[in-house]
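Annotated sample (chain length 650).
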Amino acid sequence: MTTNRQSVFVRVALLLAICAASARATPVQKDDDPRDRGATVLIDDREDTVLLIDGQPISSREFGMWLIRTQGERMALEYADSYFVVDREAKRLGVDVSKEEVAKEVEADLAERVRGAFFGRKEDWLRELDRTGRTESGLRAQRKVEYRPYLQAKAIANINRVVPEEKIVREWQHRYGRNGRHYELLMMRFKVVVPTDPDATPDEWKAEREARMKEQRDKAETVRKRIIGGEDFGKLAAQLSDDPDTRDHEGAPTGGFSHVGWFASFMDGLEKLAIGEISPPLYARGGYWLVKVLAVDETPLEDVRETIDAELVRKGPEQDEVGAIQARLKEGVSVKVLPTMYSDREGREWPSAYEPALEVDGEPVQRGTYARWIRDTIGETFVRLFVEERAVEQKANELGVRVSDAEVDERTRERIQYLIDTGHKGSRESWRTYLTLGGRSEDSFLREMAWRTRIDLLAEKLLMHDRVVTPEEVRSRFASEYGSDGRRVEVRLILCAPRVENPDPNWSREELIKRMSAAFEAAGDRARALAERARTGEDFAALARASSDDPTTREQGGALPERFRGDTWNKEVAAQVLALKRGEIADPIEYGGNWFIFQVTQIRSVTFDEVEKELTNEILNARPNDPQVSSYRNTLVRKVEFQILPAMSK
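Output written by the structure step:
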C-alpha cells in the first residue's frame, strides 16, 4: 500500500479524486544486515511476559505480532505522520529531547488530569484506570510516545525562531489593554430585554426589539443629562444600573476594567473619550452603557517590546507554531506496507524483529520498532480484544470447530459489499476513495476484515453449537412469522429513492429544497413507470435487481427475507399490501421519503403443529446476528482472568 499525502478538501456530498503514487526503495539484501542500523527498541522476538491469561504467560512477541496483524496497516500512516517524520527531522537537525524532558511533560499532564478531573485524589484516578483496563505505567508509556514528537517539533520550531509580530502585539494588549491603554472607569448598564412571544412573526419581533432598544437608549440619555447636570455618577449607578456588579460598587467594576470580551465598537467609543468625559450610550453585552473615564494609563508597544519578545522567546514556540512544523513535515509523505510486516522472508539471517515492516519515503522501519510503537500507543486498549479472540479460538479448538478459508472469503466479501451498498450507494470506486482518504488500500482492508471475520465465524459456530431451543422460542417465532391468525404473506418490493444529481455545497437552502422536491417527484414517476412495466408482463424480480435502491433485497429480486409484517410498516402501507391477492402489484406508496412498489408472491395459512419442527430447525440453524455474536464473545471473555504485567510498558 502506498499513500502520498496531499491537501484534501471534503465538501458536502462530494468526494474529490485522490492521486496516489509509489515510492519504492531498494529492498534489503542479505549482506545489508539491519542490525547495523542501531535499532534499540525491538519487541517481536522478545519473550518477556506481558500478560497472564488464566495464569498462562503471553510473550511480548506473541502480543506484538497480534497487534501488527490486526492494527499494523491501519496505523501505518499515523505512525509516519505523527512520529517518524518528526523524529527523522530532529535527527537531521541534531535536535535532542531527553527522556527527562519527556517524563517531566508527562508527569505535569497526569498531575493536571488528577487535579482537574479527580480533585487531586490520585486513588480515584487509579480506580478509573482499572475500570477502563489501563495501568498507570501503560498510560505513562503511551503519553511518552505522544509527547516526544511534540517536544521534538517544538525544539525544531525554536531553531532561529523569530517571535511573530502578532504574538508580541497580543501579549502587549493582554498586559496593558487594547492599544496599550488601561482605563479606570465608572460604568452603568441599561439592559435591553425583548419579550419572547412564540406567536410573533419575524417582523413583529424585530419591531418589538427596536422599540425596547429605543426605550433603554432614551433612558440612558436621560441619566447622562442628569450626570452632566451635576448629579453623582456613582450614586446614580447604585440606583439605576441593571448590572449587579457596577450597581453594588457605585459604578466601579470589580477588579478594574478589562477590555477582554467587549465589542470593538464599544472600545472604539471608549478611546474617543477624554478623562472626566461621560460617554454617549454605548451598546454592548445586551444593553446600553454609560461610562465615565477617571484615568488612562498608556504604555507604548515600543517601550515594552524588547521585554515581551525576550519572555516569549524564553517560553518557546506555541502550539500553532509546533502544529505548523508537524504539518510541513508530513506533507507529501509516502508510506508503503511491506509483505514482511506479516511474514518473514525465506532464508533470513537475523531475528524477525529486524525485518522491515514499512517504508516511509523509501526508508525501512523495522518490524520490532513499529510493533513497540503500536504497543505503547494502543496496546493496553486492545488487550481485552486479544483475550476475547483467544478465548474464542481456544474453545473452538476444544470442540473441534473450524472455519474454512472459503467461508471467511465469502462472508468478508458479503460484508464489504454491504458497506459499499449502504455507505457508498453501490459505488466501489467511492469506497476505494474513502479508504484512500484514511491511508488504506482495498487489499489492506480485506486482510483486516478477513481476520475479524474468521473470529466472528468461529463465535457464530460456537454459539450455534451451544444453542438450545425452548418451546417458548418456537411459539414466539410462529407468532412472528405467521401472526396470531396463522397467515403468512410473502412479498417482493422495489424501492425508488430520490436522487439529487451533482449536489453543490454552495446551493442556498431554497435551492436545495427545490432540488430535493424535484428529485422526490422524479422518484415517484420512476416508481409508477416500474409498476406499470411489472403489470404489463415484465418480471418483477428482474426489475428489482436492475432498478431497486434497497441494497438488502435487491440481489434477492426484491424478496423480503421474512413474511410481510404489518406491525413494522405504517397503517396505510400495511392495509394496501395485506389487501392484495397473490401475484397482484400495489400502486407505488410513499413511505419515509421514498417510494415503494409491492408484489405479493405467496399467501399461506398454517397451524402451529404443521410448522413446529420446521421453525425449530430454522432457529437452530439461523445465523446469529451481530449483537448476538458480540454478546456471546463478551460472555466468553468474562469467564477469563487476565492481568497486564509491568513488562507491557517496560
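Annotation: Residues 1-41 have pLDDT under 50 and may be disordered.
Annotation: The CA atoms of residues 557 and 638 lie 42 Å apart.
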